[in-house]
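User: Sequence recovery, please. Input:
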């Protein structure tokens, strides 16, 4: 008799890992399945089993693990599919002009014919992953071609590559040659690098006066670091030296300013020479569909799950 009472007490104790069908209120395992009700909600009806305790009449629910696993498997399979369909149905068409679709081929053709601007653009195309495939060696080859055709920006790029040994064997003497050519044509970055070479004595004899000359020109074009270095170097010069160097700087800057005006006039004349037939070629955009990108709907599913459970 005493043994049966002990068994009954142990039966009523709730263990940490509760058995399926055990009442969470009184701990009695004498339960039965309870029918679903409309107030339970669709998700609870789908993902839970309902029971009613025969001892205390308490109605409770327990998670149906098999259904959860089954639904998760379907979600993993169908979410990317529905996501792709949704993106494709809501994506707006992108328009590309006639010049955009053919510009790369045109630039390459012009570069191969020796056009310096096109050669420079081909070099830029290989300096960044954004513009194309990054390849420093190919970029330097195009910059060298444009530099030899007197393109001052390409001369700076080629000189800088030679100075740093990027995409080409490092050569201080050749770097100085091309940087000086670019600096005399108005490249502010080349002027700063040239001043730094004179100030530091890289590949050439250290010369404070010429360092001041090129730092002064670079500072006049907005190179902030050149301003601070110019102000350091100027303290080492006499007033007469400063006056002579400033006069030389004005002479150099007037030369490349004149070249800039002539280039601008040449461009304006070329634009005026375009006839109406040539202009019509770049007006009509060509609509093309953008490749859909699959967007994840997992955050939306999680919020829906949380709101309904």
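Assistant: Recovered sequence (309 residues):
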């Amino acid at each position: 008799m005493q043994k049966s009472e002990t068994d009954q007490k142990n039966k009523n104790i709730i263990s940490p890992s509760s058995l399926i069908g055990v009442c969470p209120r009184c701990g009695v395992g004498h339960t039965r399945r309870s029918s679903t009700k409309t107030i339970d909600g669709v998700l609870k009806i789908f993902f839970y089993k309902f029971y009613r305790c025969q001892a205390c009449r308490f109605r409770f629910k327990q998670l149906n693990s098999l259904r959860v696993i089954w639904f998760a498997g379907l979600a993993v399979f169908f979410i990317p599919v529905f996501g792709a369909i949704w993106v494709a149905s809501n994506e707006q068409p992108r328009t590309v002009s006639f010049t955009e679709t053919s510009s790369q081929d045109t630039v390459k053709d012009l570069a191969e014919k020796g056009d310096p601007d096109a050669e420079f653009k081909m070099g830029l195309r290989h300096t960044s992953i954004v513009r194309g495939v990054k390849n420093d060696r190919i970029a330097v080859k195009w910059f060298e071609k444009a530099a030899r055709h007197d393109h001052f920006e390409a001369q700076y790029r080629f000189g800088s590559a030679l100075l740093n040994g990027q995409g080409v064997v490092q050569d201080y003497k050749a770097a100085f040659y091309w940087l000086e050519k670019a600096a005399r044509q108005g490249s502010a970055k080349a002027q700063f690098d040239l001043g730094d070479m004179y100030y530091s004595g890289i590949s050439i004899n250290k010369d404070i006066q010429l360092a001041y000359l090129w730092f002064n020109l670079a500072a006049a074009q907005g190179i902030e670091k050149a301003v601070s270095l110019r102000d350091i170097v100027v303290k080492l010069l006499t007033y007469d030296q400063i006056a002579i160097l400033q006069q030389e700087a004005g002479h150099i800057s007037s030369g490349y300013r004149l070249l800039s005006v002539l280039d601008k006039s040449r461009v304006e004349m070329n634009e005026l020479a375009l006839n109406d037939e040539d202009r019509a070629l770049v007006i009509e955009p060509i609509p093309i569909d953008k490749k859909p990108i699959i967007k994840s709907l997992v955050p939306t599913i999680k919020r829906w799950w949380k709101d309904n459970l």
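The chain is about 60% helix and 5% strand.
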